[in-house]
Structure prediction request, 304 residues.
Amino acid sequence: MRQAGLSVAFVTNNASRRPEVVAEQLAGLGIPARPEDVVTSGQAAARMVAARVPDGAAVLVLGTDALADEVAACGLRPVRTVAEAGSDGVAAVVQGLSPETCHRDLAEATVALRGGALWVAGNTDATLPTPRGPMPGNGAFVAALRLVTGLEPLVAGKPDPALHRESVLRVAAQRPLVIGDRLDTDVLGAVRGEADSLLVLTGLVDLEALLQAPPGSRPTFVASDLRGLLEPHPEVVLDGERARCGAVTASYENGAVRVEGQEPAAENGPLGLEELRACAALAWACADAARPDAEEGLRAEPGA
Prediction:
């Protein structure tokens, strides 16, 4: 992408790590990245707070030291307790995931919020992917404070627009393309930011989930993996209950999408771009037409 003259930003909903750490991890995977290429929800959250409270105001940080650094970089004073804020009190609570978050931290945030502090969350992702499976994400802790206080936070991370705006500003993007593996954050965030998106099926979303994607969470492009970035994405032609994309034709029958034809061999994963694009376009068209046999959700027919 860089050789083609494109600008690249690595955007994460995780506010717990410094950009330097993220860049180092990417470099360790063979992906050249600089700290200035990394955009975190912590940066977006700190910017949101700074736009709404006076310079130098005390901000209670519910998260890691990396998040506290972003708050300080915006000219604000990070604190960990209400008492530390002094007589002026806590102007805002900024919340990001930390493995050290405990009851005491949630209690301090509760006191600050009940005292009228602004509440900004880095993201509301309920889970965090780990080698041991999904674990509680920042959204789980946000839900705890929401339950206790009855309040709703402003959200900086995907799918809300603040992180998207931060990313676009960082690379001066004119035609941004959001690449990700989740419908509820990456693709929905792109839609809300009025940007195109590329969904890759290497994460939580499988083919069946793609076919059942609701309006507003449907990607512009789809590929089995990131190699789809280097492939042309041919147009899909819809004709009733059939969709044609290149050499592939998808048809709809009894809630299932079947594929006919053979697209040229391509090294872009187990499913070709033409198959994915035809199946998705047809499935969404049938769902939007309120087909009675699509009420249970569309599926890919095994072996088709």
Remarks:
- Residues 273-288 form the longest helix (16 residues).
- The mean pLDDT is 89.
